Amino acid sequence: HHMSLDTKTSDFAREVKRAPVSGNLDAPEGGFDAIMQAVVCKEEIGWRDKARRLLVFSTDAGFHYAGDGKLGGIVTPNDGKCHMKNNMYTHSSILDYPSVSQINAKVKENSVNLIFAVTEEELHIYNQLSAAVEGSSAGKLSEDSSNVVQLVVNQYEAITKSWE
Questions:
Q1: Which residues does residue 88 pair with via DSSP β-bridges, in sequence order?
Q2: I want to staple 117 with a disulfide (CB 3.0 to 4.6 A). Which of 58, 66, 112, 156 is the partner?
Q3: pLDDT, tens digit, for every residue of 80-121?
Q4: What are the φ and ψ backbone dihedral angles of 91, each rounded to 5 degrees?
């Protein structure tokens, strides 16, 4: 988390350019931690009460889920609460990764629509995940990520059609 939600798109663009690109030692990523914190840390993120909430999760890898923390000696289940301080998740070495059902419950509870923008290699697993997370969708991200806006537009249209 680098900045709270804002209407200043130039600030957002600057933060994206400044964000360091890093890699993991293992193929799955800890994206469920990021999703959980983005969904439940309403004040820290800046979610408005009456806003339609879309969360875009972009990756080129699979994901860790509940139980995987045991490999690193982390046995305390994820509690589904906000643990962010100074824009950093503080419990990555304390709590296990969230489960799919926890992600689903928190997304529903907080009225967040989740978009998985993923590479072609990972699309099959995120399609399966999307089937288990209400209000989510998965889409193939182009090599240069230029279609991310279209993925958001498609999800937004799907949401509004389901309300008609």
A1: 85
A2: 58
A3: 999 999 989 999 999 999 999 999 999 999 999 999 999 999
A4: -115, 20
Using a 10 angstrom Cβ sphere, with 0-12 exposed, 13-18 middle and 19 or more buried, the burial of residue 147 is middle
Regarding beta strands 84-85 and 88-89, do their DSSP bridges make them parallel or antiparallel, or are they unpaired? antiparallel
CA–CA gap between residue 64 and residue 154 (Å, rounded): 27
Retrieve residue 1's tokens: 């988390």
pLDDT averaged per 10 residues in sequence order, the chain, 164 residues: 65 64 66 97 92 90 95 96 95 97 97 93 96 94 87 81 64
- Smallest CA-to-CA distance from 37 within 92, 75, 76 is with 92
Q: How far apart are CA 36 and CA 42, in angstroms?
A: 11
Note if the pTM is more than 0.90. no
**Whether 87 contacts 2, CB under 8 Å:** yes
Instruction: State phi, psi for 62 to the nearest 5 degrees.
Output: -75, -165
**83, 97, 104, 39: CA torsion to nearest 10:** 20
